[in-house]
Amino acid sequence: MTTEPAHDPRPTFVRALDQAGKQVAAVRPDELTGRTPCADYDVRALLGHVVSVLHKLARVGTGGDARGVPDVIDGVADDGWASAFARARGEVERVWADDGQLDRMVELPWATLPGRDVLEAYTHEFTVHSWDLAYATRRLAELDPELAGQALEAFSKFAPPEARSEQGGPFSPVVPVPDDADVYTRLAAYLGRRP
Prior knowledge:
Layout: H1 10-26, H2 43-61, H3 81-95, E1 105-107, E2 112-114, H4 115-137, H5 145-158, H6 183-190
Antiparallel strand pairs: 1-2
Helix pairs in contact: 1-3, 1-4, 2-3, 2-4, 4-5, 5-6
Domain Mycothiol-dependent maleylpyruvate isomerase metal-binding: 16-134
Protein name: TIGR03086 family protein
InterPro entries: CHP03086, DinB/YfiT-like, Maleyloyr_isom, MDMPI_metal-binding
């Protein structure tokens, strides 16, 4: 009997980072104060959060504590976000290049998971934040629907609507959308955003 090799989430993770990187690079300085679907973030703060997530992912990949990284990186020049993202991404890819990382248990602020599950979770986070940026800057046509479909399937398993409340948390109650809405609109609405 042969066993299937364990799934390597890195190729899909790279696609999600490619998409997020394109969205980050497309943001113009005059768009930084625009509103986003994330209630707590304007475009600048959302960029700072996306870069922060990369720093957190690099830190946990080396056994560090992500809680030592602020949720939003600031102090980046208006035209420096693409470079900040690229530098942080390079560090993440270096840290996670070793195949052994995928089976190592990684401690996150919200769970302890095998590395492969961590990368899958962050693939979905970058997919959602790509939509947030695209929505805020009106660049929705540039998004990969396959990534959204995978994220929607994953979130439906670990963030069911009945586990949410009006009092907050990472996901608001599901927002109704038409049955024929595109997959990114359905994903955003499932997470409580109002597309």
